[in-house]
Amino acid sequence: MSADLLLDVRGLSVDIRQGASAPLRVVNDVSLSVRRGEAVGLVGESGSGKSMTAFAIMNLFPSPLARVAAGQVLLEGKDLAQLPGAALRTMRGARVGMVFQDPTSYLDPLMPVGRQIAEALRAHGRTDGLDARVLELIDLMELPNAAQIARKYPHELSGGMRQRILIAAALAMRPALLIADEPTTALDVTVQAGILKLLMRLRRELDLGILLITHDLAVVAETCQRVNVMYAGQIVESSEVGPLFAAPRHPYTQGLLASILNPASRAHSLFSIPGGVPIAGHWPAGCRFHPRCPIAREGLCDVVEPGLKTRGGGADRCHLSDEAMAARTWEAAGPSPQPSPQRGEGATP
What we know:
- The structure is a single chain.
- By secondary structure, the protein is an alpha/beta fold.
- It has helices at 50-58, 85-94, 113-122, 130-140, 146-150, 159-170, 189-206, 217-223, 241-246, 251-258, 321-327, and strands at 5-18, 21-35, 39-43, 66-75, 78-79, 96-99, 177-181, 209-214, 226-231, 234-240, 309-311, 314-316.
- α3 packs across α4 (130-140), α3 packs parallel to α6 and α4 packs across α6.
């Protein structure tokens, strides 16, 4: 394993048990990686399986009916899916932290936020210097007057401040990897920008690996070095960010890019991909995107499931990716936003 390879997910599949019936396969054969000091995007519409993939990486499912059915989740060479309970709890927080999209749901309304950060430290056996470490973490989040903030209750803070407190708690034990699951979805645009800027600064300064889960490719363009596009429980395209924005190969990726609001576009309406993501576990035969795909070929795309084909530095899951790339099927919304020139600063190329 490469010395800078932090997270290595190999062939991950997740099932949900449903009584006497066969289990539902909601995540299927997902492989991705994150290196130290790198931000990697996992992007797709709601229902694509992004959050379930994150829960599987943590082996922390919201329902006892869900389980890792196949694959490996290697964090610094240790398979999290196979660790016994005590060892897994030690890894969570100490080596990998997670931030969720709604901080209100994860902060205790009856406890000052400073105490909640301290609880994250105590949970991993830290008992000395708690107050100093809490203030250090709040300062790291760029919040003014750390001592005053530490005494406040969640309802006394804005949404952006609460999210920064959650990030502080997730980083309390200096983990090597942070999984950020839609960390800006519930925030307004200016606050979103501040949170993303904070995450990228932490990535550089702490040599932190970040798996950023989002539905917004524009966020990926500003923050990530590599991206995995997910649809219907599968990775359908993976690439470095620059090549993916310049020449997307999968029709779904092309559709996501075309749906980004772009001030330079002359289009009179906002584009959206026709149809919707199929119900989890009830996938169509053949290519899972074929019912929504404008270039799907009858007798091929609706019958044969495509494998993930490696091409140069990326991969795609499409029978007709060469045709899709040449056609650029959905471009009614105008040119896609280009990756930020600052996104790779201090990162492994």
